[in-house]
Amino acid sequence: MNQTKTQFKNIENFLALDLGDLPEGRCEYVDGELVELMPEGEENDWIANYLFYLLVQANITQPKLIRPGRCEVEVPGTPQTRFPDLVILTEEHPGLTKRRLTITHTMPAPRLVVEVISPGKKNRERDTVDKRQQYAERGIPEYWLIDPENQSITVLKVVDEQYTEHGIFRGDDRIDSPTFGLLQLTAAQILNAGN
Questions:
Q1: Whole-prediction pTM value?
Q2: Strand pairing partners for 145?
Q3: pLDDT tens string 104-135
């Protein structure tokens, strides 16, 4: 990750910027500076995009509320912003994010965030520990961890600002979502990403 030279007095100054004033690419806000995110690996990007397609096909919500990879979420802790691999917005979000697709702490939490775990110990810890804590404290009701290495999908639900395990799904297990119910999607469909 490369740090950009842009510095901000506080997160409010950063969040007040319009899209045209932001650097290109995705950057997380970390203690007054922007830290450029590395591009996603091909497998992670494809799984997130294929999941978008499957969720649209499942007709669980309006397609415009399902956002793969480009929705910024303000979270407690460090960094103070994250870009989940996929986000499902609430009905209120489109009206609140017209200027910039950023969900701030003053807005309702998204309904669901999904992370595809990247290879490597540091990446796994970031997704399963750091982001898990931040998303729970932000009050995001549901968090999916898609794990290509272990061929599993863990569905977590928030209880008292902490995630509890709702289920781990593998193979032909149908995904059971606390928010969306028993879906017609299996773990294998998502993990095999269209193969």
A1: 0.88
A2: 115, 154
A3: 999 999 999 999 999 999 999 999 999 999 99
